[in-house]
């Protein structure tokens, strides 16, 4: 069975994903461009692949038209905003993904960004390297209210990690896990409640039609002036231009952004000292990347052996 691996790098953190593919006698081709593949590039090279082990690239109708033998998209990671399920249904393609593997890595990055913003670690490091010795007066995490949009796998893991910091949790979720909330003393509220009453807000929802521009200037204006915003979910959920204007005018204390509408990011948030920027690295740990790739390959193996998927995102029936 022929496999094209579009995600890059692949089998870099461990030889195990490639070993599994070869052991199970797949005919494997790798992304020849050695960078995040574009939709146009994918159309040129996907060819006769029956299985696509995909990254975050957009899989458009042109991709399906260029891959007449495609039967499975096995996504390395958790986000599925690049996959059009209606097109998958139209072309008879199944979709699997690896939602568990990156969860803790993203949650840990959230905690790191919260602590960095609160104590202004990155800007202090930058100042010292520029010859500036200035002690910033930071804020304690202890006793603060952490607002979370989306209490799925990552949101729950973030709550677990922050529980020992003696914080209060205020969560907005369209389908809340009440039992988990009770276990961790979570208070549930509206979107407006989270914006108005949180000291820290973490965005942990998927990018869909109804979450595009979920946070714009309208929502940012509801936040407290000392509050900070963390987005490790997807670019497009927080309007980048509105966030820039909000931070430039010091309407909120700061933000940390790991995901952008266009990546690599070169926008005007780079101008601001009260905004920490990271390069879509939430899942970028050796452990998580290896697990994501192995689990994506394991779904391909299940498909080849006509076994049920562990994490099927879309069943074409």
Structure description:
There is one protein chain. The chain starts with a strand and ends with a strand. The longest helix is centred in the last third of the chain and has 19 residues. By secondary structure, it is α/β, with parallel strands linked by helices. It contains twelve helices and 13 strands. Helix 1 runs parallel beside helix 12 and helix 5 packs across helix 7. Helix 7 links the parallel strand 6 and strand 7. The strands form two sheets. Strands 8-7-6-9-10-11-12 form a seven-stranded parallel β-sheet, with helices on both faces. Strands 2-1-3-4-5-13 form a six-stranded mixed β-sheet, with helices on both faces.
Q: In the residues, how many domains can be counted?
A: 2
Overall structural class, as computed from helix and strand content, comes to alpha/beta
The global form is globular
Radius of gyration: 21 Å
* CATH topological fold name of the largest domain: Rossmann fold
Number of helices: 12
In the CATH hierarchy, the architecture of the largest domain is 3-Layer(aba) Sandwich
Pick out the low-confidence regions.
none
Largest sheet: 7 strands, parallel
Cα-to-Cα separation, first versus last residue: 22 Å
* pLDDT averaged over residues: 96
N-to-C SSE string, H for helix and E for strand: EHEHEHEHEHHEHEHEHEHEHEEHE
* Strands, total number: 13
As a percent range, the share of strand residues is 15-25%
So what's the CATH class of the largest domain? Alpha Beta
Strand order in the largest sheet? 8-7-6-9-10-11-12
What is the H level of CATH, i.e. the homologous superfamily of the largest domain? NAD(P)-binding Rossmann-like Domain
Helical fraction: 25-40%
């Amino acid at each position: 069975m022929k496999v094209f691996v579009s995600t890059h790098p692949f089998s870099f953190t461990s030889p195990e994903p490639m070993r599994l593919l070869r052991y199970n006698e797949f005919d494997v081709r790798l992304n020849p461009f050695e960078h995040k593949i574009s939709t146009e590039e994918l159309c040129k090279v996907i060819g006769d692949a029956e299985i696509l082990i995909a990254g975050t690239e957009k899989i458009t109708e042109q991709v399906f038209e260029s891959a007449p033998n495609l039967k499975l998209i096995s996504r390395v990671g958790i986000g599925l905003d690049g996959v059009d399920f209606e097109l998958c249904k139209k072309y008879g393609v199944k979709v699997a993904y690896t939602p568990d593997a990156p969860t803790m890595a993203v949650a840990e990055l959230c905690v790191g960004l919260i602590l960095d913003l609160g104590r202004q670690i990155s800007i202090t490091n930058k100042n010292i390297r520029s010859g500036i010795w200035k002690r910033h007066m930071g804020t304690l995490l202890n006793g603060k209210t952490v607002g979370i949009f989306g209490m799925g796998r990552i949101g729950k893991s973030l709550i677990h990690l922050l529980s020992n910091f003696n914080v209060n949790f205020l969560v907005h979720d369209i389908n809340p896990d009440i039992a988990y909330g009770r276990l961790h003393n979570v208070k549930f509220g509206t979107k407006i409640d989270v914006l108005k009453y949180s000291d820290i807000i973490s965005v942990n929802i998927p990018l869909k039609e109804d979450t595009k521009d979920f946070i714009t200037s309208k929502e940012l204006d509801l936040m407290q002036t000392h509050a900070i915003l963390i987005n490790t979910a997807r670019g497009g959920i927080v309007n980048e231009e509105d966030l820039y204007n909000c931070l430039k005018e010091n309407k909120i204390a700061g933000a940390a952004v790991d995901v952008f509408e266009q990546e690599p990011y070169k926008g005007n948030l780079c101008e601001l000292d009260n905004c920490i920027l990271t390069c879509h690295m939430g899942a970028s740990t050796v452990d998580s990347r290896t697990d994501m790739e192995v689990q994506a390959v394991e779904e391909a193996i299940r498909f080849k052996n006509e076994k049920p998927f562990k994490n099927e995102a879309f069943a074409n029936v």
